[in-house]
Amino acid sequence: MLVNPGDELQEKCAVFGAFGSSNEAARLTYYGLWALQHRGQESSGIASSDGQEIYDHNDFGLVATVYHEEDIKKLKGNIAIGHNRYSTSGGRDECYNQPYIRKSRLFAFAHNGNLPSTEKLEKFLIEKNVAIEDLNDSGMMAAAISHHIKQGYTLENAIKKSYPLFEGIFSAVAMDKNKLVAFRDEFGVRPLSIAKFDKGYVVSSETCAFETIGAEFVREVNPGELVVIDKNGITSHQVVKGNQKLDIFEFVYFARPDSKIMGRSVNKVRENFGKILAMEYPVHADIVVPVPDSSVPAALGYSRQSGLPFEMALVKNRYINRTFIRPTAELRARDVALKLNPIIQALQNKRVILIDDSIVRGTTMKQVVKMLRGVGVSEVHLMISSPPVMFPDFYGINTPNQKDLIASRMSVEEIRKYLDADSLGFLSFEGMVKATGIDADNFCTSCFTGEYPAPIGKRSKTIRYINGRPSARKSSAKKLSENKVLV
Ligand code: AMP
What we know:
It contains 18 helices and 23 strands. The protein is of the alpha+beta class. The protein has 2 domains: 14-244, Glutamine Phosphoribosylpyrophosphate, subunit 1, domain 1 (4-Layer Sandwich), CATH 3.60.20; 268-317 and 325-437 and 464-484, 3-Layer(aba) Sandwich (Rossmann fold). The protein is globular and about 70 Å long. The structure holds adenosine monophosphate.
């Protein structure tokens, strides 16, 4: 049993699905997974069907290395689903690669999200004599669906029957030999969208994949909705009442800037983060420098709002991955040094506003400030385009335990000193929400506020609240203004 409090088997993943008239669904899915590589780099897999069999291929590594032409050719048929996986420590085992296909090979299933509590699911499966020893949360979801299919339910009805057992977050795709199904939990914490392609449809974690393959966006799968895509087109089933709580961290860091979520361009929202940051923290400086790549739009926003020149003065080595989840602080620090290099001429004797999208453990900023000081920067002002991350994520993004989140144990002024910065400003909670143009009630903001919309089960015992209650919007905003360090 792998899923219990303290285990870090959380996954930030990508799913993609295709239903069409041609034999090319797997190839389409392959291109979709390329566009979604940023959501998972541990392993990749595709399942397909031609109406006769379910075929599959998966392996560890990037999409570029997992599939060869002969693999794609073997993935026959007009239906396919795919998955990119990114797990934390301890989760590197072939049996967790997705899509899941149970022994009976009746269907395939792929999941983005996380079930923080699997109690109900475990109890159900144990009662039905299903072995769960080698199953993580996604594997157990597949096992429950499989149980209901064996009882004679169609794929969509088997998923509907299983919904009450799924306590947590899922934006998922499934297929049998005739149809593609896409479904989301009641909160829609992870994104999932539908597009038209040729005579069929594709579904994807993010809309950036639609542009890659030339598909036309139709709409998002609604929270609590299940859609069936087959030869008759799309049928919608509202399985449970939806209560939209998209994870705002998708806008902050996770999603690709060329994606749209809830009708908003991720790039534009990030630029707005930077603009509002510049209004909240005006600083006298010479240049605005992003920590590439994720903070580039926010740095552009800061530069445009402040009138200070934007300078790409840090170069990212694109061939280094996984620095965030390395097991020791030393390894993570060395990886940051390998990943980022300063352009000395652009930085020497300059007062620099350094922008990053978030501070989690503080590793990146600590290293980058040291690097900038080392090349003769005269002042370093850190501007972060999100509020302090004080709580872990239990819904499918990879964050460390709360004790390792620097903002959960230090004030802003303490963090500034630790990072050796001249000043430090975090975007306010209100500023972050305002930048999206969407009402705060539509978001899961758990990593900033400790307010978890879906139950987190036993994991709630591992959470420490500031002032004995969810640190919530007000207290985090107060903490910020009290500690604002400006020049
Ligand atoms: P840290 O170095 O631990 O403070 O993490 C912050 C840096 O990691 C920032 O540069 C972010 O862009 C990046 N980051 C934030 N969240 C994640 C995540 N879940 N996975 C990988 N990188 C992340």
